[in-house]
Amino acid sequence: MIRLFIDGGSNPKKQCSSIGILLINNGRQTQIGQKLANYVDNHQAEYLALIKSLELLIENELTEQLILCHSDSKMLVDAVNKHYTSNDKYKYLLEKLLSLLQHFSNFHLKWISEKENRGAHELAKQALYSK
Fold first, then answer.
1. Is residue 6 within a helix (H) or strand (E), and if so which, with residue range?
2. Residue spans of alpha helices (H) in the chain
3. In this predicted model, what pLDDT tens digit does every residue of 2-60 receive, in sequence order?
4. Helix-helix angle 74-82:88-101, to 10 degrees
5. Which residues contact 58 (CB under 8 A, 6 or more apart)?
6. Backbone angles phi, psi at 26, to 5 degrees
7. Within 10 Å of residue 80's Cβ, how many Cβ atoms?
8. What pTM was computed for the model?
């Protein structure tokens, strides 16, 4: 089983955004904090964190394992689980996510509190404020 914690961050004043990914596989942690090339809002950063996570899992041929993914973005979790967003700004990101999810046989996305998502949050925050 793979546990995945994701978060996105955005700073409108500095016009920068980031993602944080914490992947736990067989007791080993992989931590990714990455500043995004372009500024996006916080919701878009959340989508991009999940997209990057799925791409990493596909690249590492981990699509057949049980994957429990956790996000503190209720909007993201609801959109992915319902396969729908009413916001045109996020539709292309949701379509990309749903396309990537077709590669996975046992993927589950669950909402958790910000407190429970502290690891991914800190990674995104560190990347957001790094120079």
1. strand 2-11
2. 42-59, 74-82, 88-101, 118-128
3. 999 999 999 999 999 999 999 999 999 999 999 999 999 999 999 999 999 999 999 99
4. 60
5. 100, 103
6. 55, 40
7. 21
8. 0.96
Say what angle helices 74-82 and 42-59 make with each other, to 10 degrees: 60
Q: Taking the CB of residue 77, how many other CB atoms lie within 10 A of it?
A: 19
Cβ burial of 20 (10 Å; 0-12, 13-18, 19+) is buried
Quote the DSSP letter at residue 87: -
> Containing domain of residue 92, as a range?
2-128
- Residue 83 sits in a domain of what CATH number? 3.30.420.10
Q: Per the structure, how many domains does the chain have?
A: 1
